Amino acid sequence: MTEERAHQQARVYAVRALSELDALGLPPTPPNFTVWFAAHAGNLPDLARQIERLKAAGPIDQGTADSLYARFIAEQPERANLAETSARMLATLNGVRDAVGAAGDDAERYGQTLQTFGDSPLEDTEQMRRRLDAVMAETRAMAEANKALQERLDRSAKEIDSLRENLVTLKREASHDALTGLANRKAFDRTLAEHLHQLRHKPGFLCLVMLDVDHFKAFNDTHGHQMGDQVLKLVGHTLKTSIDAASLAARYGGEEFAVILPDRPLARAREVAEAIRRAVAEKNLTNRRTGKTLGRITLSAGVAEYILGETGEQMIARADKALYVAKAQGRNRVVAQNELDPAHLTG
């Protein structure tokens, strides 16, 4: 999605949030706006579903709205920036509304002055002069009001552009791991669930690769956490450059990574995993600050293919079992589910 498209969608979400709050009879306070903006933006699908359930059950009062904010926004620290940005956007929109309203009042007063000038008969030149002075004064006031409105709209446009950029950034931060730049666990869970949902309606191939950095704790203990972070970044970069746009690479947790590979049978997915493993193993690590050679790191990987009707948890568990076997067989290798002993496929 282009940045301009993302900006347009942010504006649409803001308008929808305000419209729904108005329809529900709820005030557009910053907390309320944040809740409904997040629901319409699709950032929090559980929140959106809860709102729909509440609407179906009856009117939503302010107490219920407060509970939604507390549960889905306030209790989640990573959403604090979203709440702050939503509040700023709401304040800007309210400022525009007030400025336009004030300009409307000025225009109405100006129209009344012109109406008075035309409706009342003139008795002498002095009376005409006074009326012309009044019209001129109102004209100058109207010009100043329009100038002030234009300046206010210009400032608001800049502020809204800034907020749009913030929302694009926040959306990315909410779905990406800060260290590696890969998708985070939440984005992984959401993407896997979406693929499984599609496959239940339109069968096809889907594979999952679970990867783990071998002996990572020992590396951290020996070379320090900063060098450990560099290793994770290297793995993240290798994953990103080893897959196509339809696939997703994620940091699953700690030194464990995951790759979702749609439209690939097991054999091809294993080839991708092997290419990743080989690319990482071929890199010789060096401490750039000291010039000291740190040796090489390796990955172990397990590959699973989707079985119709299974859950995401079952698929992940099977890939994890293959990963466990790869570790047990000596590490720095790839094991696919068809290479497992049947005993590893149960329980």
UniProtKB/TrEMBL annotation:
<feature type="domain" description="GGDEF">
    <location>
        <begin position="204"/>
        <end position="339"/>
    </location>
</feature>
<dbReference type="Pfam" id="PF00990">
    <property type="entry name" value="GGDEF"/>
</dbReference>
<protein>
    <recommendedName>
        <fullName>diguanylate cyclase</fullName>
        <ecNumber>2.7.7.65</ecNumber>
    </recommendedName>
</protein>
<dbReference type="GO" id="GO:1902201">
    <property type="term" value="P:negative regulation of bacterial-type flagellum-dependent cell motility"/>
</dbReference>
<dbReference type="GO" id="GO:0052621">
    <property type="term" value="F:diguanylate cyclase activity"/>
</dbReference>
<keyword id="KW-0175">Coiled coil</keyword>
<dbReference type="GO" id="GO:0043709">
    <property type="term" value="P:cell adhesion involved in single-species biofilm formation"/>
</dbReference>
<dbReference type="InterPro" id="IPR050469">
    <property type="entry name" value="Diguanylate_Cyclase"/>
</dbReference>
<feature type="coiled-coil region">
    <location>
        <begin position="146"/>
        <end position="173"/>
    </location>
</feature>
<dbReference type="GO" id="GO:0005886">
    <property type="term" value="C:plasma membrane"/>
</dbReference>
<dbReference type="InterPro" id="IPR043128">
    <property type="entry name" value="Rev_trsase/Diguanyl_cyclase"/>
</dbReference>
<dbReference type="InterPro" id="IPR000160">
    <property type="entry name" value="GGDEF_dom"/>
</dbReference>
<dbReference type="InterPro" id="IPR029787">
    <property type="entry name" value="Nucleotide_cyclase"/>
</dbReference>
